[in-house]
Structures are given as C-alpha cells and as structure tokens.
Amino acid sequence: MVETKDGQNGDLLPSEHLFANPKPARSVDEIQEITIVVEKGGKDDADGEDINIYKDKHTNNDKATGGWAGYVDRLEETVRTCLTTHTQIFTSLTKGLALLLYFIYFIYCMNYRFGDGGSITLLVGTAFLVLVILCKLFPDRLCCFERISSLLTFSPRRRRVIRYGLYVASFLALITYVGLKVLARNPKNAQSLLGLFGIVLMCFLLSKKPSKINWHPVFWGFVIQFLFAAITLQTETGHDIFRWLGDMVQDLMEYSFIGGTFVLGKNFRRMGIALSYGSIMIFFGSLMGLLTHWGILQFIVVKGGRALSFILGTGPVESVVAFANIFVGMSQSALLVRPYFPTMSKSELGALITCGFASVSGDMVALLISFGAPANHLLTAAVISAPAALAISKILMPETEEMGSIAKASIVTEEASEKFQTILGAAADGALVAMRIVVNAMTNMLAFVSLLGLIDAILLWFGDRAGVQGLTFDLICGYVLFPLTFAMGVPYEDCSTVGSLIGIKLFATPVVGYAKLGKIINNRMILEDYVRSTNGTWHWEGSDVFLDDSNTTLVNGVLSEHAEVIATYAMCSFSAFPAIGIALGVMTSVCPVRRNDVMKLVGLAFFGGNVASFATGAVAGLTHISK
C-alpha cells in the first residue's frame, strides 16, 4: 500500500510526497506489487497516476536497456509453445531418426563382420528391438494371445476331442523321447521318475480340495518344464544358447567390479562377501531399475505371462506373476499386480505366493553365479521353475471359486507417471533397492552361519558324550533328506552331501547353500586337474578328499557332475524358512485386507515352492546326461 501523511507545512499530494521524500529505489517486484494492490483496492485517480509513474519508468527502462532480453523472451516463448503443441510429432521424428541411424549402423556391422559372438549378440538384440517396435505399433495384431484364443473357439465336444488328443499325443511323444533318447543312453536316469510321481502323489494327498483339481495346467506345466530341460540339457543348440546367456551374465558381473574398485580400492574383492558380492547385487539392481524405466522388463513380463496363461489355461494375474519371478523377486512381482489383489481368488493368491517361493530374482541369480554355481543350469532352473510352481500350486490349492472378471482382466503394468522421470533416478532407485537386499542377505548370512556353527558345536558335544564322532547339522540333514535326494536322481554315494546342501538352504538361505555348493564344484575341478596332470592318487578322509601327491585337503569333498546339476536345480528357489517372514511382510503390506487369507495360505505355499524346486531337480536328473 502507498501511505501518505500530512506534512508540517501542509498536506502534500501523493506525487509531491513521493518525490519530496526520496526513498531507496524499489525493485521491479515491489513496484508490480504496489500496482496490483492499488488497482484491487479501488484507490483514487491520483494514487493510480502516481503508481503509473513507476510503472512507466520501469517500462521505459526495459525498452531502453532490455530490448534484446524481450526479444529472446518472446523467442523462447514461441519455441516452447511450438514444442508443447507438436510434442508428438517431434518425439516421433526423434525416434524415427534414432532408429534410422541405428539400422544403418546395424547393416554396416553385419556387412563388416558376421559369425563371431559379438555379431550374434547384435543380431539377437536387434531382433528383439524389432519385435518390441512391432508390438507397440500393432498391439492388436501381434503378441495377442486373446485373439488367437478367440480364433480357436470350437464346440464343447470338438474342444474335448482336441484337448484329450493333445494329451495323448504329448504323453506318447514324451515317453518315446525319454525311452529312446534318455533311458537308452543312461538307464539310471529312470530313478528321477520316482521323484516326479512321488511329488505329484504327495501334493494330491495334501491338496485342500482334491476333487476340484484341474489337471490341464498341471499336465502342461510339467510338459513345458520337461521341454525346456530337454532343450537345455539334451540338445547342443539349447545348451549353447543358455551357455551364451550365462556368459553374458558373467560378463555383466565384471562391470560391477569397476565401480567397486573405484569406491573401495583394487583389493576390495579380498575383503569378504559383503563387499565383493554386494557390488554385484547393487549393479544388477541398478540395471533392473533402468530396464523397468524403459519399459523393457514390463514388456517381457506381460507378453511372457500372457503366453503362459494361453498355454496353461491359468488366470492372467498368476501367469504374469509366475513369469515375472524369473526376473524379479517376490516383492517386485507382487507390485506388478497390486490393483488385482482385492479380487483375487484364494487359489490365485496361493499361486502368487508359491511362485514367489519357487524362484529367485535376476540379481540374486547373478550373486549365486558368482559363488560358482553353473550359470547355464542356474538360468535354466530360473526359467523352468515358473510352470512348475503353477502346476504344483494348482494341485495343492485348486480353484474352487468363480474368478469372474479377474480371469479376463488384461494386465497392465504401472503407468509412466508412476515411474521415475529420469534415467538417473531409475538407476539410483534400483541400486537402493538392491542395497536393502544386500544388507538383508548379508545380515541373514552372518546370523545363520554363526547359528549353524553354534548348532554344530552343540551337536558335536552331545555326540562326543555318546561316543559318536562327527555329529553335525549337515550330517543330520543328509540322512533326513536322503530319500528325497535319491528320488530326484542323485547317485547313492552323493545323496547325503546333496541332502545337507538342501538342508542348509532350507534353514538358512539359498546364498549359504550355493556358497558351499560352489566350493564343492571347485573341488571337483581341482581334483580332475590333479588327476589329469599328475595321475596321482587320492582318498576320502571323512567328508573331505585328500590329494596324496600334493598334500592338499579338499574340504567338503566332491560331487559327481550329475549330482551337481540336480543340486543346482533343486536349490534354485527363495523357499527358506526365514523367507516366510519376508513373504508375510510383503503380501500383507501390499494388500492389508487379504491378511487373513495370506496367513492361512503361506505355509502351504512355502511347501509348494520347495516341492516345485524338487520337481525341477527331478526333471533335470531325468534329462541330464553326464559326460
């Protein structure tokens, strides 16, 4: 407000007062504020005139000294308006130009050199890029399994004929293949059939409603699992593909050490698991954040989930979650379908939890590979556990409710508005999420390895009182789980060792179990190199192997390659007892209204997740041929 007061020699007009008593120069903001207040306050013409003196002065000053500023301001406003109005056009032109430049580069590279590993990687990546673009441009024509399903609509009678015909044809094909290609070469692999039939029978007896079991997803779930295992373990092409994928993951892991060296020093890999393997987890978490930000992960998960739903006849929600668990953990996959939680049936909710227990996330796979687990087998196990988990869950928790609209729902991942707006934000968020996983995993490892040491000491003390030597937790698990490992196809002499590994995984974490498995695999390589180079002798000393010529002890001994493969597949899951608390926390926080249902289903889902892993191990034992 402009204040005026009476002077001693008479009242001054506002204009006279302002110039007679000069004050410090006002800023532009102050002058504009005065103008607004006077105009809104309804002051007299004199007030308005006086204010205009400052306004005119400011305007004239702008014209005198700020002509270029005004021109630049108008130009900036014009450009901003143009970009805002034609955002879609400019975005399309930018993407089109980028794609054109990329394909020019691709054609040049293919013409320059083709046939090595790098060219194959570039070709596969470009093919995937083209698939993504086509699905974005023609969403209703490509990758639309609902459209295919509608085209394959037949009468109920014809549908039954086709369905049972496919059952019979697939079953006969499997029997023929197993008989001629597997058992004819290695009859001992038939031992794994005992485990498969035993697992199905046990799940049937423990089912919540055996009469309601839909055997269609069960049958096709095991068929898909067998096909993937056969392709990976029986064919050279499949083996090479997953070997190539494993090498890619291991190459990616090397980049994590660059950041670790920069932050922690060049010798940080010798400072323990927390630093050396933590850097891998953080790097892969950041990479997952980027893939999510760009929409690549959502594209793979949704399309793969719809394909799984189309083949197995399961609901889209549980199918998407099952496929998502190949790449992400239980908490991330639950967030993908968070809007559907309130309307899920109990069977779908149980399948979701079972799939979370039966798999490991992509960054955890990288961590387990770093411990020495075979990369190609671990990647295959992560893939084929998805249909196995759905099959087992549909036996234990069959659908007894009318799914209604949720069965026909089209799963859509979170919109771009819910994602980070920058690449750096997505990468940083992924790294922070991975950091929490690292802290959780390392804390559990520290606690449970220490507890296992204490338990072993107590058992040794009690055993020594009774004259029993070597009574440890590993030994007890080896005997208790001996029948299970034998049924999966593990050779008799290796059953106790594999049983102890599974026991450690169940009561501690998969990380602890794979850490020990990695040492045993490394022991076998050392032993093979020792025999090949020196032709020396060796012998067992308890559970260890002693190399006579080099005076070396291989702690925890060795396993056959066949037993290593089965153990790798059978332990590839999140289903350890500490994970029950994590599952309860995740599921109840995502949807608190389903807390009671989650509490009732989590125990059976935990059992189902373990059984699905054991079924995966049995399938691996059936199809793997030792060299």
UniProtKB/TrEMBL annotation:
Keywords recorded for this protein, A-Z: Cell membrane, Membrane, Transmembrane, Transmembrane helix
Residue span of region Disordered: 1-20
Coiled-coil residue spans: none
Occurrences of domain Concentrative nucleoside transporter C-terminal (ranges): 377-621
Family matches, as Pfam families: Gate, Nucleos_tra2_C, Nucleos_tra2_N
Membrane-topology annotation of the record: Multi-pass membrane protein
Domain Nucleoside transporter/FeoB GTPase Gate residues, every copy: 275-373
Protein name: Sodium/nucleoside cotransporter
Phylogenetic placement of the source organism: Eukaryota, Metazoa, Spiralia, Lophotrochozoa, Mollusca
